Amino acid sequence: MPSIAPFVSAFKRRLVNLPGPARASGEASNGEPVQVELWVNGEWVDITAGGYVMVRDDNGRINLKKGIRSEGAQTDAASSELELRNTDGRFSPRNPTGPYYGLLNRNQPIRISVPDGNGGKSYRLLAEVSDWAQEWERSGNDVWTTAELSGVIRRYAQAPPPERSVIYEAVTSPLASSVVAYWPCEDVSGSASIASAVTNGSPMVFSTGTPNLAASSLFTASDPLPTFAGASMTGGVAKYDTPTATQVRFLVYLPSAELTNRKVIVRVSQASEIATTPLTDYELVYNSTTHSLSVVFMDSSGTNFGVDLDHTQDVRDRLLYVSLEFQESGSSTIYTVRTLDIVNDVEVATSLTRNTEGLTRCTAVAVFVPSISAVGPNSSTGLAGGVVGHITVENAITAIDALGRRLNPVGEPAGRRIQRLCAENAIPFDWVGDLDDTVAMGGQSKQNPLALIRECVEADGGMLFENLAVHGLGYRTRASLYSQDPQLVLDYAGYNLAEVPVPVEDDQRIANRVTVTVNGVSQTYEETEGRLSTALPPAGVGVYGPSDATLNLATTDAATLLDQAAWRVHLGTVDEARHPQIAVNLAHSSFVDNPALKRAVLALRQGDRIQVQNPPAWLPPDAIDQLVLGFDESITHFEHRITMICAPASPYTVGYLDSVDSRVDTDGSETLTAISSSDTTVYVVPSAGQTGLWTTDTAEVPWDVRAGGEVMTVTSCTGWLVDAFGRSSSSSWGTADTGQAWATVGGGAASDYSVGSGYGVHVLSTVDTTRRTSVTPVSADCDFYGSITSSALATGSGLFGALTARMLDSENMYMARLEFTTSNAVLLVLRKLVANVGTDLGTYTVPVTHVAGTFIRVRFQLKGSALKVKAWLASEIEPPNWNIEVTDSSISATNTIGTRSIRVTGNTNAASVEIRYDGFEVINPQTWTVTRSVNGCVKAHAAGTDVRVANPWILPL
């Protein structure tokens, strides 16, 4: 690579005078920083060693592109352009004096590599020379060829579509030597007969009536096939050597509404060339008793020989591939009827052996003809709605599933279809991920193979790539993009980047309303909430497309289509900056001094996840987290710059319900009170209109949350107050498990208040005096539980225990009160006291018979003026519905929450009777203990600050 001097100053400017190596990625075995090899006469020839790859004028570099281009939607053919010194005419394909004359052609293989740091090569491009442009300077002193390099996608994109259907191609490419007759039955309407697909084969002629040609599209692997209303057809088989096996196969659909007993589906005739073989005809008929098929054995006069061969599978209204198999075995012949349900992939076979019979060659196959059997009933010609096609006759037995998915491509995983298409078109194929873990495809149309492959890529949502090992393709499944570990971690502060990673906050990729259509059936998903929703600005951004995606899927099920649309909206509503380009220079000292980092860059594949840590202070503090879509590379004597074309990785952070690392976000959560930059206790509540709470399972902590751009780690999450009363306390209730001190605010003696035996106690030693305990909450709105019981059954009059809220004093509060009546009933009353005037807002009889010491669980929820209560036996699960729901705005101040107990005049229980409380738990608000400044950002937050999982996952498509 001569003429490097003009680039020294540019090199110094680029590297800001930092020390760098003399070679961009190290030296290849040819002493160059890069090696270009051309496939010539069956071997790779290094054309850099001889100075044939020129660095000249302003083209002092090798540029190459591969993968998805900037802002692109699909993988394009890789590309590059080289100027090759051609003074001896070696790169002139038609110069008879050139050293490579007769050895160069269009699409000549070529490859570009750099040292991989392990003593081998890192191939940066494997391409074909699609154009040899001859150029020269007038004097003739400067002669060169501009070689345009293109990845194989360019060539595959120009391949013609197949002329025939999937199953036609499967049978004939190549046509097995055992096939002696083949009638595809794909003839267009108006044809006078059914053409043979075998050279010198005879057509099938219409023996009665005319089939309705090209009328049925039930079999998606085929072009439309005929139906037979009052019609039949017969085809002769050219003479061939007497076989030891005969196999007749065909696709068939038999509508139940038209089937009659002993309807002939197919008749197979054989030559009467062996005196010991009187059988000349085999009729496959419908058996109305078994709803299956039977083979009837006859001679040419219709005389039946022996018992019929009865199949067992119900053949009505199924898409079947049917095989009649006759195999000689010594002096006997084994007869088999085999069916394959191509939709459900169910194979059923029935066989019998007939002695002293041999086979002769098949002479004819007839479809839906009247029976020649001397034994009735014999059905008439044709079968309205019946479909037959792709009839083959072979002199060997093969597996009925030998054609694989080509019998019925519907339901084929997208990855497996790409693999099959590549195999059928001799395209080398590689993959990343599980090819079976891809979406189920619909039928396969007659398109260019690359178009069919792209159809699979679009449906599954993965990435097509060009193979760098051989001239072929690869596929990276969508599932393989999920929740990857970073394959490359760069450090902005460590000068790993060759240019500023410019964040882009535009509307280039927004799609918040998407309609997915499959076979004319559509479903639309729309994001109606959030910063990138379809709501008008400033609440959202308005409606953005693309609004339509037409996919080839196996189903038009509404849920499947809606999932597909929702996934596309998910990708189109990533609320973060994009970093379309992240560039590195492998000649920089940060890579020269860290060979492992350089190797990690060279090993990157399309679809890999990369991160840039320690971004500058004016950017968000989180690591820049991206997926690599493509590469744009520049190689000179002084640098190897690799620019990675990127998109955010966050949409592919997914989880599964059984994954311990996955985090589901709430529908909305916010801080209840303001927090300072140093607070480590945070109170959170659901956002307006939401009810979801954060998990309090200790096994789930820690997790990261994001509030106002700051990431915090939650190390503990509990209800605001939790008290299991597992302590002992006298003359008070002491302190709850979460640290709040219970205050005694009611009457009676101090000794009436205690904790022991796993519950809190109010002793009702006097009548008409309440016992109350309380704490002051952080909000007037709360959702809490408590379990209540009495130590004895009520006598004379009832016993009362209650959960209280917004309790100012003995005369002002809301109560969720239980009355234990003298008939051992339990009444739940939602009651308010205002200025000591009591009002029952709702009453419910709990469906239990009270037993002293058996707890009743009560839930009390207050949200503004909305009050709700429910009660149930504490040993049972919580019922879903509220027992009482009212609206009341008499008391709105926070005040206190707690408990209240009383027995009134008329009650004759002993002075030692108790109301007991257990399991007091305020589930909303919740209390977090947090670690601050996890992402380097720490600040104060106002009440109402939105709080979400820092890196939430969604269920994958």
TrEMBL record:
Domain of life of the source: Bacteria
Protein name as catalogued: Uncharacterized protein
Provenance organism: Streptomyces graminofaciens
Lineage, highest ranks first: Bacteria, Bacillati, Actinomycetota, Actinomycetes, Kitasatosporales
